[in-house]
Amino acid sequence: MAKSPARAARPSYRCSECGWTTGKWVGRCGECQAWGSVAEAAATPALRTAASPVTTRAVPIGEVSIENAGFRTSGVPELDRVLGGGLVPGAAILLAGEPGVGKSTLLLEVAAQTARYQRRTLYVTGEESASQVRLRADRTGGVHDELYLAAETDLGAVLTHIEETRPELIVVDSVQTIGASGVEGVPGGVTQVKEVAAALIRVAKTRGITTVLVGHVTKDGAIAGPRVLEHLVDVVLHFEGDRNSRFRMVRAMKNRFGPIDEVGCFDLGPEGISAVTDPTGLFVEQHHGRVPGTCVAVTMEGRRPMLAEVQGLVTTSPLDRPRRTTSGLDGSRVAMVLAVLERHCGLRLSAQDVFASTVGGARLHEPASDLAVAVALVSSHLGIAPPTGVVAIGELGLAGELRRVRDLPQRVAEAARLGFRFAVVPTEPGQRGAGPGVAREVEGMRVLEVPTIVSALEALRLTAGPG
After folding, report:
1. I need a labelling partner for 427 at 20 to 30 A (CA). Which of 81, 145, 306, 397 fits?
2. How confident is the model at residue 419, as a pLDDT?
3. CA angle at residue 99 from 85 to 105, to 5 degrees?
4. φ and ψ at 129, to 5 degrees?
5. β-pairing verdict for 92-97 and 210-215
6. What SS3 state is found at 354?
7. Which phi and psi angles does 212 have, rounded to 5°?
8. What is the pLDDT of residue 9?
9. Alpha-carbon distance 170 to 89, whole Å?
10. Looking at the predicted structure, is the pLDDT value of residue 464 above 70?
11. Quick one: pLDDT at residue 437?
């Protein structure tokens, strides 16, 4: 029986926004949900790569020189902290963030500081004109002879600028606005972004130039473009912050040269961006006396402990379905805390409107803030203010127990440094049956270890009186 001829290759369709592929045409992308972005992909012929001459000879790893791979300061200490020590020659860094968060302002400051160290810097802008960037530089004091500025949207022109200026640092703002001629798609598309990023990174590696690429984000907060962009670069940084606050944070999501659990804190003002070495004061309100409905939590941002005040308001609701409103807190965890308080502490909160928020735009999504949220809500419900100078640290379990959290000694030490004198923390796992609480002195601070939420509220004297 004769074999049937080979079937012709079936066409495939690809999304120009995210690179998602499918075997048939659809009007809406199944990955990024974009309309009209799926089109038939051109067939790629099979290629055979032959051996070619090497660029550098392979040597034993012990003979590889590391003199040119050391850290160089960016001139911004908080950014150096996140990067693990500074900028590395030949490194490719991707900085992503929402529009208007201050990415361009931060990188213009980095470029200006690098130029002040007599290291030539090239700032390529594809989103603004050169005059607009110059005005911002005048406002922030970023004008320097070693800082070169170019407004380009063509990859070939950018590579020419690199050849002519021979910089030690390149800032491209942004990678989605640069297009490569001869490559299919529009600037910002999957193919264009991959080609532009690959070309810039290739130049960075061969010439030892530190390259910083600005990336856009989607409405969900993820980095726009193909995921391969994050794999190509050495460092991925997220620049985040609330539009209603001047406080900004840079968080490392990937770092081949240092830790990924560090954050840098900045203050974005009219004169530019400045480092915030002690951000705790931004998130703790100074009250003139004891106030019901407040409690201070200690959260970890990377390796840095930060204090933040939690405020709660519990009032009688006129609605059939009482409101549960949160700001800066995880709404599902607040709902869990309310259920635990009602079940294990005997508080009737199901008919109450509950509002919980943080001070200064802080975002507390760590379970270690559960105890502070519970103390603030109970304090508001009973109208009893907690003792002054107290911090509450601990994760709340569904059975009413308090669970230990990571880096507890660092949290307690930070609270003691800022003048707090009393801390309520969970009991050590091996001492659950040690009674209602165990008090000890740590860093000149009285630390009370309690096993349950009931014991914590009793220690803070947040209990309803008779009747």
Report:
1. 306
2. 87
3. 45
4. -85, 165
5. parallel
6. strand
7. -115, 120
8. 58
9. 11
10. no
11. 62
Token duo for residue 450: 């309690």
Q: Is 99 annotated as a binding residue?
A: yes
139 Cβ partners below 8 Å, 6+ apart? Answer: 270, 271, 272
DSSP 206: H
Q: What is the chain's length?
A: 467
> Is 367 marked as a binding-site residue?
no
293 is known to lie in a ligand binding site: no
Residue 74: strand, helix, or coil? coil
The structure tokens listed for 276 are: 């915030």
Model's pTM, two decimal places?
0.76
Query: How far apart, in Å, are the Cα atoms of 374 and each of 79, 216, 405, 449, 466?
Result: 35, 38, 16, 16, 21
Tokens linked to 190: 């999957």
Structure tokens at 102: 């201050």
**All residues at 6 or more sequence positions from 7 whose CB lies less than 8 Å from its CB, including other chains:** none
The answer to whether the annotation marks 98 as part of a ligand binding site is yes
Tokens coding 91: 């490194």
Amino acid at 280: T
Closest by CA position to 372, among listed 411, 409, 318:
411
Tokens representing 70 are 């050391």
DSSP letter, residue 119: -
The answer to whether 394 and 373 have CB atoms below 8 angstroms apart is: no
Alpha-carbon distance of 132 to 180, in angstroms, equals 24
**If pLDDT is split at 50, 70 and 90, which confidence band does 434 have?**
very low
pLDDT class for 45, splitting at 50, 70, 90? low
Given a cut of 50, whether residue 321 has pLDDT beyond it is: yes
111 close to 118: Cβ distance less than 8 angstroms: no
Pairing outcome for strands 13-15 and 21-22:
antiparallel
Comparison of pLDDT for 6 and 137, the residue scoring more? 137
Torsion sign over Cα 353, 358, 362, 365? negative
Note the Cα 137 to chain centre separation in Å: 26
Residue 466: predicted pLDDT = 40
User: In which residue are the tokens 């100074």 written?
Assistant: 286
Q: How far apart are CA 432 and CA 342, in angstroms?
A: 23
pLDDT(6) > 50? no
Average pLDDT of every residue of the chain: 87
| Gyration radius from the chain CA atoms | 28
Rounded average pLDDT over 195-200: 93
